Amino acid sequence: MVIPAFNEERYLPFLLNSIDVARQRYTRTAAEVEVIVADNGSTDGTALVARSRGCHVVRVEKRSIAAARNGGATAAVGDILAFVDADTRIHPETFNAIEQTLASGQVVIGATGFRYDRMSFSMWIQFIPALLFLYLSRIDSGVVFCRRSDWHAVGGFEEDRLMAEDIQFQTAMKRLGRGRGQRFARVRGARALSSARKFDSYGDWHYVTNGFQALRWLLTGRGSFAKFIQRYWYDERR
Questions:
Q1: Could you give the CA distance from residue 151 to residue 129 in angstroms, rounded to a whole number?
Q2: Beta strand 88-89 with 144-147: parallel, antiparallel or unpaired?
Q3: DSSP the chain
């Protein structure tokens, strides 16, 4: 399991606790699940926390979520890769669900889906269109998984892409799979639990307010939009 992380000492222990539970529930052995923390230039105790929990820590200097994902995947030795954000908690049946989904050979990439650790009325109003987009696009989030050979075949994540790198990657994987009669799979019964910390920081309407701000920055120039991306995704913990 690959975990990109930048200054995640607060949230990482919760994810690792959930991984420990899922490893114990795995029908094979817990030792078969490798946990890699791709430390993307953290200045806090992220790496220390990860090492103290027995994780393989890989330092990735290029400040890009995509680069961190690729750095972790490159260090992995297993045949299956699973990617999850550091502020997430995985479902206890995650590893069993991944193995069962890929076993048929009909799936090129899959995802568990996710829900936030808290919801409000305003969050639901904004979340429903996002769910519709994910459903119609046949992509998803939570824990995203694939075979290591297929990750390599598409060239991994685009490291110069500072946002939506997971959408780009899943799109490339689906294109690869179509030529072999394989598909995207949305796993049932293993949904991940994601932190609502962006809503805590920016307010429960922040999809709307930041969306308008992003549009304004985009219209004022490419450089300005790049500054918005940097502030929203990289100047704080993601």
A1: 29
A2: unpaired
A3: -EEEESS-TTTHHHHHHHHHHHHHH-SS-GGG---EEEE-S-SSSHHHHHHHTTPEEEE--S--HHHHHHHHHHH--SSEEEE--TTEE--TTHHHHHHHHHHTS-EEEEE--EEESS--HHHHHHHHHHHHHHHHHT---SSEEEEHHHHHHTTSS-TT--S-HHHHHHHHHHHHHHTTT-EEEE-SS--EEE--HHHHHH-TTHHHHHHHHHHHHHHH-HHHHHHHHIIIIISS--
What is the number of residues in the chain? 238
Q: Mean pLDDT, to the nearest integer, of 170-180?
A: 96
The single residue listed with the structure tokens 């045949």 is 79
Whole-structure pTM value: 0.89
- The domains found in the chain, sorted by start residue, are 2-199 (3.90.550.10)
Taking the CB of residue 46, how many other CB atoms lie within 10 A of it? 25
pLDDT tens-digit map of 113-147: 999 999 899 888 888 888 888 888 889 999 999 99
**From CA 191, how far away is CA 89, in angstroms rounded?**
9
- Condensed to tens digits (0 to 9), the pLDDT of residues 53-68 reads 999 999 999 999 999 9
Nearest one of 10, 154, 2 to 68, comparing CA atoms: 2
Contact 22, 91 (CB under 8 A): yes
Torsion over CA: 111, 228, 14, 200 (sign)? negative
- Cross-strand partners of 57: 37
H/E segment holding residue 89: strand 88-89
